[in-house]
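Final report, Chapter 2: Outcomes

The project's central promise was a pipeline that accepts a single protein chain and returns its three-dimensional structure in a standardized token representation, suitable for archiving and comparison. That pipeline is now operational. To close this chapter, we reproduce one record exactly as it appears in the project archive, with the input sequence first and the structure output second.
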Amino acid sequence: MATEHFSTRFLDLDTWTSLDVLSAFYEGQLSAVAAVRSSLPAIAAAAEEATIRLRRGGRLVYVGAGTSGRIGVQDGTELPPTFNWPDDKLVYLIAGGDRAIMRAVENAEDSVEDGIAGIRGNDVGPDDVVIGVAASGQTPFTIAALKEAASRGAQTIGISNNADAPLLDVCSHPILADTGEEVIAGSTRMKAGTAQKVILNLLSSLIMVRMGRVYRGLMVNMRATNAKLRRRSEIMVRQITDCDEATAADAILQAGGDLKTAVLIAMGAEAQEAQEALARSGGNLRKALADFSKKT
């Protein structure tokens, strides 16, 4: 496995100056990001299919062990506040259970039984999107979970940092970021982990765009849960509708904090009329605005 290889270039790393060590780490991070570019078509294809399934009411299911599992949890937990993705549409299957998020659980990643049980216990089905992440691509827990999910008709996405990894063979959408050897041999929290985070960022963000939760590059589905975000909501309404500050604030108040509804209200719609337009458009603000414009 390339991620486990030892590089003679870094044989005396511990004798280098701190600046030279950091330079090596930094170069590794840059190469990790660059390794993702060739994966963009695979990420796009995975997101397109995921959107179809999620529109039918499916869930995003993150599967992984150790660093990979924690990166999956980080990606998923950022979706509700950023895009108002429902909490009940997220599932995390981490080898060793929730306690493994905070500390290592020895041998948990080797349990095939736990991987299968996690999928069965959460009743994963055809509308669900299961994302398995493993730097080595050989983690038994993650491979078993993907196999079981595939047998139940779910979409399976596998993310690995090693070519020819078994994980990539058992999923419908393999995504490879070949990051190669680490500066610190086998420390996949570095280059491999960075590439995984980039891939998940790209994948989940594209899914949210395709789900209509972004308009004009703005987070129009975000949860305005504090003063800063409420202020940001007002600014976005003003940006989209070109209304004044008072109109934006009043529209958000009438909309009960829902930014998309507030945009339509600021454009002249009644609250119920705005909600109906959004319902017809499947929550897509661009389509709802076009629908409303035809009637005015």
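Archive annotation: The first strand starts at residue 60 and ends at 64.
This record, like all others produced under the grant, will remain available to the consortium after the project formally closes.
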